Amino acid sequence: MRRTIARRLLDRLFLTGEVVEAEQVTARMRRVRIGGDGLSDLRWAPGQHVRLLVGDGGPLGGVLRTYSVWRYDPAWEALDVIGFDHGGDSPGVSWIRGARPGQEVSFMRPEGSFALAREAPYHLFAGEETASVAFGAMLGALPEGASVYGAVEAGSPEDHLDLPGGLVRVCRGGASAAGSEVLVNAVRELELPDGPGVAYLAGEARTIQAVRAHLVGERGWQRRDVRTKPFWTPGRKGMD
Ligand SMILES: Cc1cc2nc3c(=O)[nH]c(=O)nc-3n(C[C@H](O)[C@H](O)[C@H](O)COP(=O)(O)OP(=O)(O)OC[C@H]3O[C@@H](n4cnc5c(N)ncnc54)[C@H](O)[C@@H]3O)c2cc1C
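Above: the input record for the complex with flavin-adenine dinucleotide. Below: its predicted structure, written as tokens.
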């Protein structure tokens, strides 16, 4: 009985879909397409994410892990997420690595407030691999002629996603993505117009803080000009 109630509750909270495609898109990033009947009328804005129920516990014992939506098209009845393989064996990355067509997956509807500004003199993006997924969706949704700047960091040249917008690519090599000076320095070196635009900073939490400190402290931006979304940080699980 208790199990039935829990199952009903889960069915209200979650959509059920199926992995319909999975492919390696960079050396350490895998795109997973999730399809299903409930995916023909989702409300989604570029920059938003879904929470997937993953782990070994089955529908009643899984854990939630968050992935930005790379693409969604109601006509496909499917959405794409792209997961970065950070090398651990934790539930999210294990699910991304193991996703195969035919596999059932429960997930929550798209949500989140990390979104494009309606108007901005220019848009500035900065983050590492995990952030580049949201950035891809956001860049693709900018009006033609929008002015774009930014830097994306990856472990190696083979780890960069193909993104529109001409963002500068930098590599951290073997250095940690946490509190990354490589990314802060890349943003510092950008030749930006006079005056602030709107910045979108995502990915590792300490790096985001450092990039924001640079924009506010060294370039004179207001904090309100900077939109941030921490995705992960060492030692924290399933950050949201
Ligand atoms: C709004 C939002 C959107 C996100 N979008 C994406 C996305 O599109 N693609 C994507 O790959 N990730 C994305 N993430 C990050 C993803 O949810 C986390 O990386 C998540 O922690 C992975 O789950 P896990 O079970 O593998 O690791 P957890 O169990 O959460 O953590 C285990 C350990 O791994 C470490 N860890 C987690 N992520 C990384 C990393 N990237 N590099 C190094 N160490 C790490 C943790 O700090 C922790 O110590 C997003 C997060 C949020 C909040």
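Notes for the reader.
The longest strand covers residues 15-26.
Residues 205-218 form the longest helix (14 residues).
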